[in-house]
Amino acid sequence: MTKAEIVTEIAKTTGIEKSAVLTVIEQFMTSVKESLAKGEDVHLRGFGSFIVKRRAEKTARNISKNTALVIPAHNIPAFKPAPAFKDEVAQ
Questions:
Q1: For 21-64, how does the pLDDT look when each residue is reduced to its tens digit (9 = 90+)?
Q2: Residue 31: its pLDDT value, please?
């Protein structure tokens, strides 16, 4: 399902204009990204949590050049679904 399909579905079920729904969805995504960039987790009860995971520094190999390189420690975004969400998808 694409963002456009989500906007259409929400607009159809709520009766709100597509442009207003799109604005709300865009602002929601912006808020989540900004919170994660600050290192804050976003918890949505019954749905799940957008969290920041820390990846440790590691050594990798470039096999074509036979050299080692260091990948620095970094943060990555992740989603952890709520138990109710997992149960609903599992059915």
A1: 999 999 999 999 999 999 999 999 999 999 999 999 999 999 99
A2: 97
Q: Where are the beta strands (DSSP E) in the chain?
A: 42-44, 48-55, 58-62, 67-71, 74-81
Q: Give the angle 1-90-12 at the CA atoms, nearest 5°.
A: 35
Contacts of residue 19, Cβ cutoff 8 Å, sequence gap at least 6? none
Q: Burial level of 12, CB count in 10 A (0-12/13-18/19+)?
A: exposed
Q: Residue 47: enclosing H or E segment and its boundaries?
A: none
91, pLDDT greater than 90: no
pTM of the model: 0.79
* Nearest Cα to Cα of residue 1 among 33, 25, 24: 25
Q: Which residues of 24-41 are buried (b: 16+ CB within 10 A; e: fewer)?
A: eeeeeeeebeeebeeeee
